[in-house]
Design brief:
Blueprint lengths: L1 E8 L2 E2 L18 H12 L9 E6 L5 E11 L7 E12 L2 E7 L4 H9 L19 E7 L1 E2 L8 E3 L3 E2 L3 E4 L7 E13 L2 E11 L5 E5 L2 H6 L3 E4 L4 E4 L1
Antiparallel strand pairs: 1-6, 1-7, 2-5, 3-6, 4-5, 8-15, 9-14, 10-13, 11-14, 12-13, 15-16
Keywords: Antiviral defense
GO biological process, one term: defense response to virus
Pfam family, one: Cas_Cas5d
Length: about 230
């Protein structure tokens, strides 16, 4: 399987958790739906939906701060009534990711756009104030992972929790679980299902023994291997 890889970074990012209201909390890293949305912006596809798969690698440690902001806006369709609401927002600091993209729908078109340095719409990390530009384009050759009994996998990408049978604790690793990522975007602001991830705070590989191949396939998760390591794509 051919996989497109490219890097994105910014000084800040915000991937809003939909289950928060008063305080705007962020997921600790880019969500799969936001990553596919960024691909849609590059391609110029509005309300982008696809069965292509994506993986997310952390290139920098996860850091966040809380910032007080004034949210300005209008009330409904009013022309004069406005509001100024102080709001606490959580921001990611100096985030950087490597995205791995594969599939049969948009891979070829995406590679062409990235190779030419083109994007139809602006690309950003979750919010319009966190602009980014894809760089370091690569076209990688991968092969399916041979999942055998007791096999250890060192995943470069964040790992969906359902594929983990046993986590291998390594020295100085700082593992965390991030819950409630929206999984499938169906268009018109509709989402289906959620997925939890395990990640290493400093971007180190996650070492684990995977579940059996049938269970991983049932979860619609793809695991592939390349020279540098393993990838989990969904």
């Amino acid at each position: 399987m051919q996989v497109i890889a490219f890097d994105i970074k910014s000084s800040t990012a915000h991937f809003r958790r939909p289950d928060t209201t008063t305080t705007h909390l962020t997921y600790p890293f880019m969500t799969p739906t936001a990553a596919k949305g960024l691909v849609g912006a590059i391609l110029g596809e509005e309300d982008f939906t696809t069965s292509d798969i994506i993986g997310i690698q952390l290139l920098k440690p996860v850091r966040s701060i809380a910032q007080q902001m004034s949210m300005l806006g209008k009330i409904g369709k009013a022309t004069c009534d406005t509001f100024n609401r102080p709001t606490t927002i959580e921001l990611l600091v100096n985030p950087a990711y490597r995205l791995y993209y594969a599939g049969n729908e948009y891979t070829e078109k995406l590679y062409h756009q990235l190779k030419e340095g083109k994007s139809v719409y602006p690309t950003y990390l979750g919010s319009a104030f966190a602009l980014t530009k894809p760089e370091n384009l690569q076209l990688l050759e991968t092969k399916p992972v041979d999942i055998s009994e007791g096999k250890q996998v060192d995943s470069l990408t964040v790992v969906p929790v359902p594929v983990i049978q046993e986590l291998k604790i390594t020295e100085e690793a700082h593992y965390s679980r991030a819950n409630g990522f929206l999984r499938y975007y169906k268009g018109n602001r509709n989402f289906e299902k959620s997925v939890d991830f395990l990640f290493e705070h400093n971007g180190k590989p996650v070492s684990f023994q995977p579940q059996n191949a049938e269970l991983i396939q049932a979860e619609e998760i793809t695991m592939v291997e390349m020279e540098e390591g393993f990838l989990c794509l969904l």
